[in-house]
Amino acid sequence: MSSEQKVVVVTGASRGLGEAIVKAYRHRNFRVVGTSRSIASSSDPDFLTIRGDIADPETGRRVIDAALERFGRVDTLINNAGIFIPGPFEKYTEQNYKDVLATNLNGFFFITQNAIAAMLKQGSGHVVQITTTLVEYANSNVPALLASITKGGVTAATRGLAIEYASRGIRVNAVAPGMIKTPLHAPETHEAVGMLHPLKRMGEPEDIAQAILYLEDANFVTGEILHVDGGQIAGH
Ligand SMILES: NC(=O)c1ccc[n+]([C@@H]2O[C@H](COP(=O)([O-])OP(=O)(O)OC[C@H]3O[C@@H](n4cnc5c(N)ncnc54)[C@H](OP(=O)(O)O)[C@@H]3O)[C@@H](O)[C@H]2O)c1
Predict the structure, then answer these.
(1) pTM for this entry
(2) In this structure, are residues 13 and 49 in contact, taking their beta carbons and an 8 Å threshold?
């Protein structure tokens, strides 16, 4: 095993953005640990997959322990797992509220605690969240208060953690996508959804992976919310 090979943990790695992020890091020759509830096993010795519900604190512990056991370190954590339930605020159910908070907030909190503990021992590390431009730029065409609450929390936590750990070698950043072509959006909606962006099209999963690789290399960048959103953050 080459001691130079870095290790990244990607949550929500079974499909969509997570799958593209895994591919991008493997292309960079990182060792990868991917997790989700239904992720398939892997025949690639440098891609370890672990099943679990990210809302369960035990999953975060298990995934980081497995990364340390198999690959010896955790250089980067990508907090990508998340669910999106749009809809009018007054129509949300209690179950919607519980599900979105559990996946998007517990799912960020517990694995990040475990990863940062490992990074502190190493004296270096990088954590990236996937948020959304809807946090800063609410859109009357896409009411999604549960996304605002949870991704807003994660956006605030990105800046908070960036400052808390800046002097100890750990950077913390986020990528805020616009609408990206993943299984989250049915193909028949792509054209209409694309028109919600100043660039008049949806993004591709590779656009998000590329932004994450930029942050990976950007040693002087921490506390940044990088918008990859077809211009939405600038206006309409
Ligand atoms: N696509 C977009 O337009 C867009 C825009 C802004 C932000 N985002 C954010 O980007 C992230 C990825 O979105 P996506 O479009 O790739 O969504 P997706 O295609 O629905 O994929 C979501 C991933 O998260 C995993 N996941 C969901 N709930 C989980 C749980 N409780 N425990 C563990 N894993 C769980 C899923 O795997 P399993 O089902 O196997 O668990 C899957 O791998 C999400 O945080 C989303 O909010 C997406």
Answers:
(1) 0.98
(2) yes
